[in-house]
Amino acid sequence: MKPKKLYERLRSGALANVSFKYFVKLLEAFEFKLDRCRGDHFIYIHWDCPDDMNVQPVDGDAKPYQIKQFLAGVKSYNLCMQD
Question: Which domains does the chain show, CATH number per domain?
Fold first, then answer.
């Protein structure tokens, strides 16, 4: 799934059953960079966002509460998706 299509789906409220792989691609489309990884904890950073994005897969899917945190960060820091 393309990041733009996934972002629109998430903004509409469909947060369940999101592939972790596609969620990571969405993070990267918003210019989050992988800073470090410990076990199954992936820490992403963004230079315009003071908070780190800590994400973990559960059975291959992203956690809905972490998706909500991402969406809130995008909105509060006016982050834009890069093409």
Answer: 3-76 (3.30.920)
